[in-house]
Structures are given as structure tokens and as C-alpha cells.
Amino acid sequence: MSRSATGAALAAWPGTMVIVSHDVEFVEALAPDRILLMPDGQLDYFSAESLELVALA
Fold first, then answer.
1. InterPro entries recorded for this chain (predicted)?
2. What is the pLDDT of residue 52?
3. pLDDT tens-place string over residues 6-48
4. Is residue 51 within 8 Å of 22, Cβ to Cβ?
5. What pTM value is reported for the model?
């Protein structure tokens, strides 16, 4: 299963999940609505800027 297919399958999950990833394509396919920024511990809404942070990691 490809990263994008795995992300799309997980995106259909109705519950909460914690995923740690530095893979921009995977995170983009997952399309989360919120993201926890570490080490700040700040909960924020997911945006294109969030993908930039993933790419920098």
C-alpha cells in the first residue's frame, strides 16, 4: 500500500489518532484538521504552513 493510500485510509478513521511523520506526502494525504506542534504543545488548525513545518523537519 502506498503512503498516500495509507494516509487516505487513516483519514477515514472517525476517532482520534497520534501520528508522528516527517513525510509531507503522507501528512498531506492524511489531511488532518488539527495538528499539535511540538515542543510548544500548541494545538492549531492544519494548513499549508503546517506542511512547510513538516518539510523542514
1. P-loop_NTPase (IPR027417)
2. 85
3. 877 888 888 888 888 888 888 888 888 888 777 777 788 888 8
4. no
5. 0.66
Query: What gap in Å lies between CA 56 and CA 33, rounded to an integer?
Result: 20
Nearby residues of 14 by Cβ (< 8 Å), 6 or more positions away: none
Gap between the Cα atoms of 12 and 52, Å rounded: 24
Classify burial at 55, counting beta carbons within 10 Å of its beta carbon; exposed 0-12, middle 13-18, buried 19 or more: exposed
